[in-house]
Amino acid sequence: MPRCGYPPTPYRSIILAFRDYQQSAEWEVARWQANFAQLPPEHRRLLPSQPAKFAAARQAIHTNMWFIKSLLQVRACRCTCHAMVQESKHGPGLVLLDGMLSRQRQGC
After folding, report:
1. pTM for the structure as a whole
2. Contact 100, 107 (CB under 8 A)
3. Cα separation, 61 vs 55, whole angstroms
């Protein structure tokens, strides 16, 4: 297993990008703010809406991170679901899930 703790898969770079998204994006917005702060006052006055754009970018980062976490939760749920499901002797389409007999769902 690689040092990052994730198994080698074709999707590892995507997983790592998801994991590091918020930190990287926040760093980028902080860089924008630092560059803006270095402008002379007369140049900053030409861009009065820039602070609002920084705030909007941070809100977008937050929203994107919520979406990414939601995607990962769905994936984790499906993996857990597959690990818990055992074929049942009780008939086709029926599975034993957490000790309860139920119909097999399409997503799981």
Report:
1. 0.59
2. no
3. 10
